[in-house]
């Protein structure tokens, strides 16, 4: 092993002072997140202030997204794990 190299399993990591330029898809993804995240902060804080320490409201047994009467119905069960409950 040379200086600046570290072996983890079969992967060899090299530490150097090289700067790696991101490719265009990575730049696009980064910029998308950079634009989106600030728009989520205020709604998240509002949600937390409304719900913190309060019991969850019961959910409807079914959610209907179709606005017409002739839609095909599908059933799906979803299990939610709430880690912050006592």
Count of helical stretches: 1
Shape: extended
Strand content: 5-15%
Number of strands: 2
Task: Please describe what this structure looks like.
By secondary structure, the chain is an alpha+beta fold. The protein has a domain at 23-52. It is 33% helix and 9% strand. It is built from 1 helix and 2 strands, in the order ββα. It has one helix at 24-51; strands at residues 5-8, 11-14. The chain has a two-stranded antiparallel ribbon. Strand 1 (5-8) and strand 2 (11-14) form a beta hairpin. The radius of gyration is 24 Å and the shape is extended. The mean pLDDT is 77.
Describe the structure in brief:
This protein is an alpha+beta fold and 86 residues long. The chain has one helix at residues 24-51; strands at 5-8, 11-14.
List the helices and strands and how they pair.
Layout (H helix, E strand, L loop, with lengths): L4 E4 L2 E4 L9 H28 L35
Antiparallel strand pairs: 1-2
Output the keywords.
86 residues; 1 helix; single chain; alpha+beta
